[in-house]
Amino acid sequence: MSAEGVTSSLGPDWRMAPDGIRERDAARVVLLDDAGRVLLARGHDVDQPERSWWFTLGGGIDAGETALEAALREVREEAGLTLSPGGLEGPVLTRTGIFDFYAETCRQHEVFFLAHLPGGHTPDRSGWTDIEREVLDDMAWLSAEELRAQPLEVFPHELPEVLDVLVAGWDGTVRHLGVQHDG
Fold first, then answer.
1. What domains can you pick out in the chain, each with its CATH number?
2. By the 8 A CB rule, do 110 and 30 touch?
3. Which parts of the sequence belong to the Nudix hydrolase domain (predicted)?
4. Helix or strand holding residue 148 (H, E)
5. Region of 10 on the Ramachandran plot (φ > 0 left; ψ -120 to 50 alpha; else beta)
6. Quick one: which of 34, 50, 82, 180 has the fewest CB in 10 Å?
7. Which helix (H) or strand (E) holds 78?
Protein backbone atom coordinates (compact mmCIF):
# COMPACT_ATOMS: atom_id res chain seq x y z
CA MET A 1 0.00 0.00 0.00
CA SER A 2 1.37 3.45 -0.86
CA ALA A 3 1.95 6.05 1.84
CA GLU A 4 -0.98 7.96 0.37
CA GLY A 5 -3.31 5.06 1.16
CA VAL A 6 -2.18 4.61 4.77
CA THR A 7 -4.79 5.75 7.26
CA SER A 8 -3.77 8.31 9.83
CA SER A 9 -5.04 9.26 13.27
CA LEU A 10 -4.19 12.88 12.59
CA GLY A 11 -7.44 13.95 10.95
CA PRO A 12 -8.72 15.00 7.54
CA ASP A 13 -6.85 18.34 7.35
CA TRP A 14 -3.51 16.50 7.07
CA ARG A 15 -2.41 15.69 3.51
CA MET A 16 0.42 13.51 2.27
CA ALA A 17 3.19 15.63 0.75
CA PRO A 18 5.25 14.33 -2.18
CA ASP A 19 8.15 13.57 0.20
CA GLY A 20 5.95 11.21 2.25
CA ILE A 21 5.46 13.52 5.26
CA ARG A 22 1.97 14.45 6.36
CA GLU A 23 1.50 18.20 6.38
CA ARG A 24 -1.10 20.89 6.82
CA ASP A 25 -1.51 24.64 7.02
CA ALA A 26 -2.31 25.99 10.47
CA ALA A 27 -3.28 29.25 12.14
CA ARG A 28 -2.10 30.09 15.65
CA VAL A 29 -2.80 32.99 17.99
CA VAL A 30 -0.59 34.76 20.51
CA LEU A 31 -3.18 35.88 23.09
CA LEU A 32 -1.74 38.55 25.40
CA ASP A 33 -3.34 39.88 28.59
CA ASP A 34 -2.63 43.34 29.99
CA ALA A 35 0.12 41.88 32.24
CA GLY A 36 2.05 40.76 29.14
CA ARG A 37 1.30 37.07 29.63
CA VAL A 38 0.38 34.70 26.81
CA LEU A 39 -2.33 32.04 27.02
CA LEU A 40 -0.72 28.68 26.22
CA ALA A 41 -1.76 25.06 26.11
CA ARG A 42 0.39 22.27 27.52
CA GLY A 43 0.18 18.92 25.82
CA HIS A 44 1.85 15.61 25.18
CA ASP A 45 1.91 12.98 22.45
CA VAL A 46 0.05 9.73 23.17
CA ASP A 47 3.16 7.89 21.95
CA GLN A 48 5.42 9.93 24.29
CA PRO A 49 3.31 10.64 27.40
CA GLU A 50 6.42 11.46 29.46
CA ARG A 51 7.23 14.43 27.19
CA SER A 52 5.22 17.62 27.64
CA TRP A 53 5.47 21.07 26.05
CA TRP A 54 3.80 24.51 25.91
CA PHE A 55 2.44 26.02 22.69
CA THR A 56 0.14 28.75 21.42
CA LEU A 57 -3.52 28.08 20.69
CA GLY A 58 -4.40 27.16 17.14
CA GLY A 59 -4.67 24.35 14.67
CA GLY A 60 -5.36 23.29 11.13
CA ILE A 61 -6.99 25.48 8.53
CA ASP A 62 -10.13 23.75 7.24
CA ALA A 63 -11.00 23.57 3.54
CA GLY A 64 -12.45 26.89 2.38
CA GLU A 65 -11.21 28.76 5.47
CA THR A 66 -8.75 31.64 5.51
CA ALA A 67 -5.95 31.67 8.07
CA LEU A 68 -7.76 34.48 9.91
CA GLU A 69 -11.03 32.53 10.02
CA ALA A 70 -9.19 29.43 11.27
CA ALA A 71 -7.43 31.45 13.99
CA LEU A 72 -10.77 32.83 15.22
CA ARG A 73 -12.37 29.36 15.16
CA GLU A 74 -9.45 27.71 16.98
CA VAL A 75 -9.48 30.31 19.78
CA ARG A 76 -13.23 29.79 20.16
CA GLU A 77 -12.89 25.99 20.24
CA GLU A 78 -9.78 25.76 22.41
CA ALA A 79 -10.38 28.59 24.89
CA GLY A 80 -14.09 29.41 24.58
CA LEU A 81 -13.19 32.92 23.47
CA THR A 82 -15.06 34.67 20.65
CA LEU A 83 -13.02 37.37 18.94
CA SER A 84 -13.96 39.53 15.99
CA PRO A 85 -11.76 39.58 12.88
CA GLY A 86 -10.73 43.11 13.86
CA GLY A 87 -9.52 41.74 17.20
CA LEU A 88 -6.57 40.01 15.53
CA GLU A 89 -3.42 41.70 14.29
CA GLY A 90 -1.05 40.25 11.79
CA PRO A 91 0.12 37.83 10.79
CA VAL A 92 2.98 38.63 13.20
CA LEU A 93 4.98 35.42 12.75
CA THR A 94 5.36 32.44 10.43
CA ARG A 95 7.22 29.17 10.69
CA THR A 96 7.17 25.57 9.51
CA GLY A 97 7.35 23.06 12.35
CA ILE A 98 8.44 19.48 11.76
CA PHE A 99 7.60 17.11 14.61
CA ASP A 100 6.52 13.60 15.51
CA PHE A 101 2.89 13.18 16.58
CA TYR A 102 0.72 10.07 16.74
CA ALA A 103 3.78 8.05 15.65
CA GLU A 104 4.07 10.04 12.41
CA THR A 105 6.43 12.73 11.23
CA CYS A 106 4.38 15.85 10.53
CA ARG A 107 5.04 19.20 8.91
CA GLN A 108 2.86 22.17 9.82
CA HIS A 109 3.06 25.51 7.99
CA GLU A 110 2.01 28.02 10.65
CA VAL A 111 0.89 31.62 10.54
CA PHE A 112 0.53 33.44 13.87
CA PHE A 113 -1.82 36.28 14.72
CA LEU A 114 -1.85 38.54 17.80
CA ALA A 115 -4.77 39.44 20.07
CA HIS A 116 -4.80 41.64 23.17
CA LEU A 117 -7.17 40.64 25.97
CA PRO A 118 -7.29 43.34 28.62
CA GLY A 119 -8.33 41.64 31.83
CA GLY A 120 -7.38 38.20 30.48
CA HIS A 121 -9.81 35.33 30.04
CA THR A 122 -10.65 32.13 31.88
CA PRO A 123 -10.27 29.33 29.31
CA ASP A 124 -13.28 27.13 28.59
CA ARG A 125 -12.39 23.63 27.35
CA SER A 126 -15.89 22.58 26.30
CA GLY A 127 -15.07 23.02 22.58
CA TRP A 128 -12.11 20.63 22.59
CA THR A 129 -12.07 17.86 20.00
CA ASP A 130 -11.53 14.21 20.97
CA ILE A 131 -7.85 14.46 20.01
CA GLU A 132 -7.45 17.65 22.10
CA ARG A 133 -9.06 15.95 25.12
CA GLU A 134 -6.59 13.09 24.69
CA VAL A 135 -3.39 15.15 24.38
CA LEU A 136 -3.97 18.53 26.05
CA ASP A 137 -3.13 18.65 29.75
CA ASP A 138 -3.43 22.26 30.84
CA MET A 139 -3.85 25.88 29.82
CA ALA A 140 -2.12 28.76 31.58
CA TRP A 141 -1.20 32.42 31.28
CA LEU A 142 2.62 32.66 31.29
CA SER A 143 5.01 35.59 30.95
CA ALA A 144 8.18 35.47 28.86
CA GLU A 145 10.21 35.20 32.08
CA GLU A 146 8.05 32.33 33.36
CA LEU A 147 8.53 30.52 30.04
CA ARG A 148 12.28 30.95 30.29
CA ALA A 149 12.30 29.65 33.89
CA GLN A 150 10.08 26.58 33.53
CA PRO A 151 11.62 23.24 32.47
CA LEU A 152 9.33 22.16 29.60
CA GLU A 153 9.85 22.71 25.90
CA VAL A 154 8.12 25.70 24.30
CA PHE A 155 7.04 25.96 20.66
CA PRO A 156 8.08 27.94 18.83
CA HIS A 157 11.40 27.92 20.70
CA GLU A 158 11.72 31.69 20.28
CA LEU A 159 8.35 32.41 21.89
CA PRO A 160 9.81 34.18 24.98
CA GLU A 161 11.79 36.54 22.73
CA VAL A 162 8.78 37.03 20.44
CA LEU A 163 6.71 37.94 23.51
CA ASP A 164 9.28 40.54 24.56
CA VAL A 165 8.77 42.24 21.19
CA LEU A 166 4.97 41.88 21.03
CA VAL A 167 4.36 43.06 24.60
CA ALA A 168 6.29 46.24 23.77
CA GLY A 169 3.98 46.75 20.77
CA TRP A 170 3.91 45.06 17.38
CA ASP A 171 5.63 47.20 14.75
CA GLY A 172 3.91 45.60 11.75
CA THR A 173 6.88 43.39 10.85
CA VAL A 174 6.14 39.74 10.11
CA ARG A 175 8.88 37.66 11.72
CA HIS A 176 9.74 34.52 9.70
CA LEU A 177 11.29 31.72 11.76
CA GLY A 178 11.79 29.32 8.86
CA VAL A 179 11.76 25.53 9.17
CA GLN A 180 12.15 24.25 12.73
CA HIS A 181 12.48 20.72 14.03
CA ASP A 182 10.48 20.43 17.25
CA GLY A 183 11.60 17.76 19.63
1. 22-167 (3.90.79.10)
2. no
3. 22-167
4. helix 144-149
5. alpha
6. 50
7. helix 67-79
